[in-house]
Amino acid sequence: MVKALIMMADYGHDPTETAVPYTAFRDAGFEVRFATEKGLSPLCDARMLEGITSLATSRSVKLKYASMIASHEWKNPLSWSAAEFDLQAFSLVFFPGGQDHSIRQLLDSEIVHKLLQEYFPTTRKPSANFIGAICHGVKVLADTNTDCGRSVLHGCITAVLPSLFEQAAFRLLRPFMDGDYCKVYGADSEDLEHAVQKKLEQKTHLKTSWSPLPFVVEDDQFNYVSGRCQADAQKLSERLVFAVQGGAHNEPESHESE
């Protein structure tokens, strides 16, 4: 049985970017686990489930979220800071994103970066290991450096949340929200698109789209599949399931789809 892992902070991940992959992996027959820093059961961003910001979360996703948080896996996560924890036990590792600053617990963790430093190279094609990321989940990969001091994504292609989307959400919600919601690193911080682009070998390796249609990017060297935002969650999840089940082991070129 395929073992899949969803890496999380204790609080703040986007419910769509968490529940949709979980449901797709579970329905594919994968054994799905969650991991938080200390093994505490996580919570997704409550503001995406209630109030004006909940409009970004569909009714079907809310039902998937309710099922997910009632699951044994959700209530009994692993601890990614435990000495015995090892990503190598999983064939698929997934990083959801979010809009709340609290997800920096995961994004900025040196422990997580070390785990990824060891795991990401094992996804080089035609490996049976896979990694997926969406929205700010891409940043934890971009910020993970190899022994050479370069990002593990240096030389890879990746999707990223467009600055246009990030700024639009921030400015649209600012009158209704306190603080710097939608700007994970603060109101004056650089946009995710720029932060990730700096870590890539070439500007052309960064792929994004302003289209409302799902947009998913597959790297041509590693079993790495990425998406921009909630709109991509379903297609990204389906693509990962397809790849893990053998559909992409021998594909020589990158796959970029809308």
Question: How are the SSEs placed, and which strands pair?
Answer:
Elements: E1 3-7, E2 11-13, H1 15-27, E3 31-36, E4 43-44, H2 59-69, H3 72-75, E5 78-79, E6 92-95, H4 104-107, H5 110-119, E7 130-134, H6 137-142, E8 158-159, H7 163-173, H8 192-197, E9 206-207, E10 216-218, E11 224-227, H9 233-247, E12 255-257
Helix pairs in contact: 1-2, 1-9
Keywords, separated by commas or semicolons:
258 residues; alpha/beta; Rossmann fold; 8-stranded mixed sheet; two-stranded parallel sheet; 9 helices; 12 strands; 31% helix; 16% strand
Describe the structure.
- It is a single chain.
- The chain has helices spanning 15-27, 59-69, 72-75, 104-107, 110-119, 137-142, 163-173, 192-197, 233-247; strands at 3-7, 11-13, 31-36, 43-44, 78-79, 92-95, 130-134, 158-159, 206-207, 216-218, 224-227, 255-257.
- The protein is an alpha/beta fold.
- The protein has a single domain, classed as 3-Layer(aba) Sandwich (Rossmann fold).
- The protein has an 8-stranded mixed β-sheet with strand order 5-3-1-6-7-11-10-12.
- The longest helix is centred in the C-terminal third of the chain and has 15 residues, at 233-247.
- It is globular.
- Residues 248-254 have low confidence and may be disordered.
